[in-house]
Write a structure and sequence with these properties.
Blueprint: H1 6-14, H2 23-31, H3 45-56, E1 61-62, H4 66-71, E2 74-75, H5 84-103, H6 114-132, H7 147-159
Antiparallel strand pairs: 1-2
Length: about 160
């Protein structure tokens, strides 16, 4: 359940301080399955990239005019604009929506504003960098190792701030 009304959705998707999409692009994004921030739960990064690809190269539509229709010609339509900034912000919105879902926090316009998402992304990036860093592996207790030696090694491991 989301607390977004029509005006809040307009602000979230179209306001330059948030996602910064044009109305035309927002409507096509809804056609792709993202009409509400709650919809980000169903997407991963690859899925969102597929949506962007569809926006950049929309399908051709039948040409207008009797001769063109009779000949079955197709015409291209203008691509939907998604700036790099909007793309980055939409990916950030996807991450925070998934996080809120994991921790049971409801989505509302206040916790989905760009400044909140931006702070979340900074912290998320730091967490992911720490996760990737070489943190070592905790010592394992084996049959051939004395318990007191393992405890000393484990205490040293914990003292380095790495944790198990």
């Amino acid at each position: 359940m989301t607390l977004f009304d029509a005006a809040a959705l307009d602000v979230f998707f179209e306001d330059a301080g948030n996602m910064g999409l044009s109305n035309r692009t927002r409507l096509q994004l809804a056609h792709e399955g993202i009409a509400d921030p709650e919809d980000f739960k169903e997407f991963d990064e690859d899925g969102l990239d597929a949506v962007f690809s569809n926006l950049y190269k929309p399908p051709k539509i039948p040409a207008t005019g009797a001769a063109a229709i009779a000949a079955g010609r197709l015409r291209e339509i203008q691509a939907y604009e998604v700036s790099a900034k909007s793309k980055m912000r939409l990916k950030g919105a996807m991450l925070i929506v998934k996080f809120y879902d994991d921790v049971g926090r409801p989505l509302d316009p206040d916790n989905m504003a760009w400044p909140v998402i931006k702070r979340f992304l900074e912290q998320w990036k730091a967490l992911m960098e720490r996760k990737k860093a070489e943190i070592g592996t905790p010592p394992k207790l084996t049959k051939t190792q004395a318990v007191h030696k393992w405890l000393d090694a484990f205490t040293l491991h914990i003292s380095k701030g790495w944790g198990p």
